[in-house]
Amino acid sequence: MYIEKNFFDNLFHTVMDDKNRTKDNLKARMDLQEYCRRRELELRQENNRMVKPKASYSFKMDDKRKICDWVRNLRIPDGYASNLSNCVGMKEGKLMYMKSHDCHIFMESLLPIAFSALPERIWKPITEISLFFKDLCSNTLREENLVLMESNIHLMISKLAKKIPCGFFNVMEHLPIHLVREARLGGSVQCRWMYPFESFYPPKATKAVVESMCSFYHAPWRSWSEVPIHIRDRIFVEFRMKCAWSRDLEAEKSPEFKKKSEQGRAAHLSNKGGSVHTGGSISIAAHQRRLENAKGRLVTHDEVFEETHMKKLKDGTKPTWIEPRAETTHDNFK
C-alpha cells in the first residue's frame, strides 16, 4: 500500500516538477555528468549561477495548471475516492495533502490520462507501471498473469530508468520487483492492506464503544479499568450481540448529512462527458491478454476496443455498440 503511495509521490512530483518534492533536483543533475552522460540535461553556468535545463519528462507551469484544473473538475463515483478537488493548488500548479487511498486511485486510474501530454517514449513506461499496479491490486489474481508480470516488471523499471535521471531511483522504486512474488505467496492484496482500517477515525470509534459499554454497568466501578476481567468478557459479549451504533445512525439521519450526501451524489452523477464501456474493473491490459490467449495470436487495438465497448448477449455475440460515441471513436481511430 505505502510502496504504491511512495512510488506515486516520487513519480508524480518529479513529472510535475514540484521544487520541494521532485527527485530531479540539482544534486541529481550533478550526477548526470559523471554517470549518465545526458548532455541535454546537464547543469549549465549562466551569469555566474548554475541553471537546470527543462527536461522533456516534466511539465511547464501552463501544463501543470491544466492538469490541476482537470482534477478539480473531475467527477467520480460516490464512495470511489475522496474529493480530489480539495487537494488542488492552482496557483502553485500541484496537488497537495493526498492520502494513501487518493494516491492509489490516481496511480491506477488517472495517471495515464493526466500525463497523456508527455512524449510517447516517456508516457508509455509510466502507463505500463500504472497498469502493473492496477493488475496487481485486482480482486482476482491468475497464476499465468502473475508469472508474466513478474518477468515484465524488470523491463518496465529499466524503461523508466532510461528516461528519468538516476536520482529518482531509490529503494522504493526497487520494491515493486518483489511485489508479484509477495502476491503469489500471500494472495490478493485486499486481504492484507490497511485501507479499510484507515477509513474511520479510531479515537472516535473507541469513544463510542466505551460509552456504549458503560451503559451495561454501574457502581461500584468508576471506570472500565476497574471492572474485573471475567465481568468484562461477559459485558463485551452482550455488547457485541445487542449494542447498535446509535450515534452513527443518528448522524446519518441528520439533515446536514443527508444534504451533503445528496450534493455529492448529484455531482458524481452529472454528465461531464465520461466514457461508457463494458470492461468492468478489469484493466485494458488484462482484456488484451485474455483475447490473445483465446485467439492464440496477438490482437490489435481495434479488437480490444470492440471487446470493451460492445454489448454482449448471452450467446456470446456482440451486435451493437454500448453508445454512439464508442462507434464514432472506433471509426475515427480506425
From TrEMBL:
Ranges for domain DUF4218: 136-200
Q: Which domain of life is it from?
A: Eukaryota
Name a Pfam family for this protein.
DUF4218
Chain segments carrying region Disordered: 254-280, 313-334
Skewed-composition ranges (Basic and acidic residues): 254-265, 324-334
Q: Which protein is depicted?
A: DUF4218 domain-containing protein
Question: Which organism was this protein described from?
Answer: Nicotiana tabacum (Common tobacco)
Q: Which gene encodes it?
A: LOC107800282
